[in-house]
Design brief:
4 helices, Bacterial Pleckstrin homology domain-containing protein, transmembrane, PH-domain like, alpha+beta, five-stranded mixed sheet, single chain
């Protein structure tokens, strides 16, 4: 059994809400005008805000998490920040557990996070959360099918 999963941030509720707020703010700015700020005209300031919003939106749309589990171990990548596969052999994995809470509540929001415990969190959906504990660190993935990940751990990882 080989398990592959791909999650994108654009499939979540967050991206349409972001673009909706951006569209609403742009419409309000165009209808009511924007206050001139030290040499910027209102259209120049609006253009700058729209450009920055476009860059943030492009970043959100291009973010994804790819998970792969096979007989040799587990690997993941999260472009555009982690473009090569990060691989861990099953011997390096101490434990994989499903966290009962939803990713939005337990992880502090969607996207890639680094918390104060020194743990990376890759949260791209609001369905389920799985913590992978390695010998020297741990990280958290969001997943749509935690049973498959736990089955792969039972099949390949726990016997080593």
């Amino acid at each position: 059994m080989v398990y592959n999963e791909s999650q994108t941030l654009k499939d979540s509720w967050f991206v349409p809400v972001f673009f909706g707020i951006q569209l609403l703010a742009t419409a309000v700015a165009l209808v009511y005008g924007v206050v001139d700020v030290e040499g910027f005209t209102s259209t120049g300031l609006l253009g700058l805000v729209l450009f920055i919003s476009f860059l943030i939106g492009w970043l959100m749309v291009s973010m994804k998490l790819q998970i792969r589990l096979n007989a040799t171990g587990l690997s993941y990548k999260s472009p555009p920040f982690i473009n090569s596969w990060r691989k861990h052999k099953w011997e390096e994995v101490k434990h994989i557990q499903q966290i009962k809470r939803r990713s939005i509540l337990s992880g502090g929001g969607l996207g890639i996070r680094y918390d104060l415990k020194g743990e990376w969190k890759y949260l791209f959906s609001t369905c389920h959360v799985v913590r992978v504990s390695l010998k020297d660190s741990s990280f958290v993935w969001s997943t749509r099918n935690p049973k498959k990940i736990l089955e792969a751990w039972e099949e390949w990882g726990s016997e080593r």
